[in-house]
């Protein structure tokens, strides 16, 4: 892939009728924590920055970066630059992937939202991070480009998908129509979302049911139908096991082909570093 070819490809997909993944040149940067704050009761937002952020690229809502951490013995094993990609050592270093929530090239800021949960390696690191804490960041390696030509958009997921859903809602055309479903524990995890007027946002409270075990998201999605003659795009992410029946639902009930939906496991209960299902996302 020639440098700059991804920009041409993005333009082609945006002008087309269906979504497609587009790879980017993969960067590697050492950034520092500029600040942190809670977003609702379930997300911790770290703002990263530093000179290495110059040239960072972000184009679509579901992009992710990989945060790289030292091994248990303190050794930091970084990937090597290999043309427009990165070459990783084996065994892989400790790392986790997170959605690019916001990038402000003028202010020199990159926001990453961490879903807090007990025992999570990266969320524990994020909770302890203070201004000046440094971390190496790889990516984004690419993203899902979806044209604005669909009649309806369905966005759905649990709190690990909320940063991407929030960015999706900001990026959609202001005249877009559709639905956004977000599973959270309770109202304290709800956040302000900049949804287009014709996109209905529904917060789904699972209550005392542990994350990754509730069926509130599936039940809510099965109540929605696409008006006859309209084209829809569906983006759904969250706990991998709970998403399996939704792949069949999107295919059989909504008639969506691979180019018209992405249903991806962001994490899997009981698995510390989940590699994702049908996607490159790892555990949040």
TrEMBL record:
User: What residue stretches are annotated with the FAD-binding FR-type domain?
Assistant: 21-147
The record's SUPFAM superfamilies line, in alphabetical order, gives: Riboflavin synthase domain-like (SSF63380)
Taxonomic path: Bacteria, Bacillati, Actinomycetota, Actinomycetes, Mycobacteriales
Q: What's the source species for this entry?
A: Rhodococcus oryzae
Stated name of the protein? Siderophore-interacting protein
Gene3D superfamilies per record: Nucleotide-binding domain of ferredoxin-NADP reductase (FNR) module, Translation factors
Q: In terms of domain of life, where is this protein from?
A: Bacteria
């Amino acid at each position: 892939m020639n440098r700059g070819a991804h920009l041409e490809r993005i333009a082609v997909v945006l002008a087309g009728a269906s979504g497609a993944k587009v790879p980017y040149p993969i960067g590697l940067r050492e950034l520092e924590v500029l600040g942190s704050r809670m977003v609702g009761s379930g997300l911790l937002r770290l703002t990263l920055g530093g000179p290495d952020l110059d040239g960072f690229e972000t184009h679509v809502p579901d992009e992710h970066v990989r945060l790289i951490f030292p091994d248990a013995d303190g050794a930091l094993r970084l990937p090597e630059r290999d043309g427009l990609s990165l070459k990783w050592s084996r065994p892989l270093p400790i790392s986790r992937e997170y959605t690019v929530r916001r990038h402000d090239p003028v202010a020199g800021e990159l926001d990453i939202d961490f879903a807090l949960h007990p025992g999570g390696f990266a969320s524990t690191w994020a909770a302890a991070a203070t201004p000046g804490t440094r971390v190496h960041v790889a990516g984004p390696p690419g993203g899902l480009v979806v044209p604005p030509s669909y009649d309806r958009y369905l966005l759905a997921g649990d709190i690990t998908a909320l940063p991407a859903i929030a960015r999706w809602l900001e990026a959609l055309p202001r005249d877009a129509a559709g639905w956004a479903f977000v599973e959270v524990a309770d109202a304290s995890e709800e956040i302000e979302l900049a949804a287009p007027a014709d996109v209905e946002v529904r917060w789904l409270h699972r209550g005392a049911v542990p994350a990754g075990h509730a069926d509130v998201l599936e039940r809510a999605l099965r109540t929605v139908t696409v008006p006859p003659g309209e084209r829809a795009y569906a983006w759904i992410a969250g706990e991998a096991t709970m998403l399996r029946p939704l792949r069949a639902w999107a295919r059989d009930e909504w008639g969506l082909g691979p180019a018209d939906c992405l249903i991806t496991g962001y994490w899997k209960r009981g698995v510390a570093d989940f590699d994702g299902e049908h996607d490159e996302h790892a555990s949040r």
